[in-house]
Amino acid sequence: MKTLNYDRYGDSSVLKICEVAIPIPKKNEVLIKINSVAINPLDWKIRNGMLKIITGNHFPKNIGCEFSGIVEKMGEEINENLIGKKVFGFADNPMKNGVLSEYICSTLNCIQEVPSTLSLEEASAVSVCGLAALQSLKTIAQAQSGQSILIHGCTGGIGLFSIQLANKMGLNIYGVCSTKGVEISKEYGCHVVIDYNKENILNIKQKFDIILDLSSKLTYSNAKNMMNPSSIYIDPNATPEVMLKSFFINLVSSKKCKVLLTKFNKEFLNELTTFLKNGLKVKIFKTYSFENSIIAYKETEQNGSIGKTIIKLF
User: Which residues form the Enoyl reductase (ER) domain (predicted)?
Assistant: First the structure.
């Protein structure tokens, strides 16, 4: 089968398409024929070596954190008949091995059946950003109806999910994006959209209960001037430096600084699936073939996306 991997850390030029054997599922695993894989910033953070203290120096490594596909085989300990089922999910351990291959093996803890409301392509772009948005609002911020939230970088994968979930939770939603993202931000439910090409976010007078800095460009030092007492700033850039800084901030300030460390587990995946069944939408920005997957990574890293970019294998 074909797979996309790399044998050293670096930019997208280290990626290469290789031929490897189709994996054999263990007793507690299923074999999945991959339909689509969505691109996430975590992919290139791992590939660039930013997280090599965790990922180590064992090569080759495969890339990709989330996928959709169809179950083709089951291990002997799997009790339910899943053959032919459409599933989506996340890599069992993306820090060690990714999912951008024609086939992967997965445990049931990492997958969920695709809701009838989604295509396989859409389902591939759900797990990472959907879980990040859900945990940011529900677990970290413990958002309550009537609170105000600023989503800085609201048109990326996490941003568009966050807008929709914040609406379902009854929040007052302000979003920050470029001119080209204003209309889709409104379409997905943002109450007030600030175009950073036309307005300096630091000049606004509004105070917020929650600031979700998905761009990691606002920074806590700037955000605290826009925060209510006992409010929370969430940073998805979970570097050791940011985590240490947030620890000391939280010792002395009521304006808390929290780092998003997304938990990938079945419980949260089940909860996210319920939201998907009840109308949570997925925005696909662009679709590439597997043969153009290296180009897909290069262009997404350089140019960003409104919604999610996916690589379609069949």
Answer: 10-311
Q: What is the pLDDT of residues 53-77, one digit of tens each?
A: 889 999 999 999 999 999 999 999 9
Q: Which residue has the tokens 């969505």?
A: 38
Q: Collapsing DSSP states into helix, strand and coil, what is residue 39? A: coil
Amino acid at 245: K
The backbone torsions φ and ψ at residue 248, rounded to the nearest 5 degrees and listed phi first, read: -75, -35
- Residue given tokens 């949570």 in the structure block: 280
Question: Helix, strand, or coil here: 106?
Answer: strand
Residues of the chain with CATH 3.90.180.10: 2-126+282-312
Residue among 186, 151, 159 nearest 285 (CA): 159
What's the rounded Cα separation, in Å, for the pair 289 and 304? Answer: 18
311 touches 289 (CB < 8 A): yes
User: How far apart, in whole angstroms, are the C-alpha atoms of residue 91 and residue 89?
Assistant: 7
Q: How many residues does the chain have?
A: 314
* 3.90.180.10, 3.40.50.10490, 3.30.530.20, 3.40.50.300: CATH of 2-126+282-312: 3.90.180.10
- Tell me where in the chain the CATH 3.40.50.720 domain(s) lie: 132-259
**Is residue 261 classed exposed, middle or buried when 0-12, 13-18 and 19+ CB atoms within 10 A define those classes?**
exposed
User: With contact defined as beta carbons under 8 Å apart, do 308 and 125 qualify?
Assistant: yes
Structure tokens at 166: 């914040």
- Contact predicate 296/288, CB 8 Å: yes
Q: How far apart are the C-alpha atoms of 283 and 154, rounded to whole Å?
A: 12
| pLDDT tens per residue across span 223-246 | 999 999 999 999 998 777 888 999
Q: Write out 150-176 in H/E/C secondary structure.
A: EEECCCEHHHHHHHHHHHHCCCEEEEE
pLDDT, tens only, 9-19: 999 999 999 99
Which CATH fold topology does 132-259 show?
Rossmann fold (3.40.50)
